[in-house]
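Practice problem: predict the structure.
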Amino acid sequence: MIKGCIFDLDGVIVDTAKFHFKSWQDIAVQLGGQLSLEQNEKLKGVSRMGSLDFILKLNNISISEEEKIKLAAQKNECYLKLIENIDQSEMLPGILDFIKQLKKENYKIGLGSASRNAITILQKLKIDHYFEAQIDGNMVTKSKPDPEVFLKGAKGLELDPSECIVFEDSIKGITAANQAGFISVGVGDKNTLTEATYVIEGFTNLNPNDLFKILSRN
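Answer:
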């Protein structure tokens, strides 16, 4: 029986991917390299340092650990400036109504995000009060596809993974959810998120109970 839902943040609740892309692209150019929108897709669900390592490897650039720390901090400062005035208009269509319906039906709601700024963003969006468990990149030591962030989310909701749906837009996130025994719902392209239990294009006009009925038949 489904008792709770755990949401990734970027690409599921809010469209902050464009801000991450702009920040990382600036770092890549600063280093004399490049980062395309297509290449940026591979950073979904990846930690800050993991993303930097990807960009360095992509451009065959080698720097010291000290320089990595400085660049990661610089990227975060840029990102924070870009999201300074973020509001509910940046939320993906239908997601707020979906969350409100979950709360109305007394389902437990959690956040499981690799972003270290995830809780700050929930607060800026003024939706943090909907989330009984809020797990972000500051609270885990392993990044997706390791399921640590989702397992901590389920523990915070006092639920077993089998009682929770994980909503994810990345392949690594779906893998993490599946490995730990969660029901995985991909948000995006069904041809990309092939390992998900079920895939939705988005949350527009999506009723939780209708989705749960479909999942019970899978």
